[in-house]
Amino acid sequence: MIDFHTHILPGIDDGSKDIDMTEKMLRMEQAMGVSHIFATPHFYGHRRSVESFLERRSKALDKVNELLKADDSLPRVSVGAEVYYFSGIGRAEQLESLCIEGTNILLLELPFAQWQSDIAKDISELTDRRGLHIILAHLERYEYFQKDRSVWDRIIDMPLTIQLNCEDFINNGSLFRKNRRHKLCLDLLASHDNIIIGSDCHNLTDRRPNLAEARAVIKKKAGAERLSQIDEYTEALLI
Q1: Which domains are seen in the chain, by residue range?
Q2: CA angle, corner 234, sides to 233 and 237, nearest 5?
């Protein structure tokens, strides 16, 4: 199993605070049967340069690699970044260095606000002119803010990949927004083939690794065949 979206590198963002937490998160992933983890720390272009981010990511990864050398049964770790959208990103330099290592795949986080046409234009720049393959991080979390769905519809019909968070399959509680996101995830599974899932794990408690729990929900509500299709699509895209 692949956990695509994680914040498991120590001390680089609001995810794992230190290498001890990282090791515990890795062992939680291992216990669920996860074999490959993509570490995707937050990158905010208005806060830090690409060079500074890559240097900090490299140092954090070195600590993780020491763990992996000591125990080769732990999941494999590849790195990338969760890049927060900014106006003009389609023309920004150095984005390729933030892609998932060895690929042209960029994990893009969009604003938690009403989307405007400039966002769609920038994504088109990234895909059509730059030749990047965009994965939209946790798509279901933005829908609540789209009072006008025109840009939403335009973006999700682009040739890109939709990533959904595990917690929004699991959280089918009484809160309106949780129910809304849970239903949206299931609706997207039924209407779109270009979907992968990720835990978006940040810690050991409220945002813990939870891939196995979400997979159980998907299997129950969308069927084992649909879960296999997600796995096949994920592996073809990333491996």
Answers
A1: 2-238 (3.20.20.140)
A2: 85
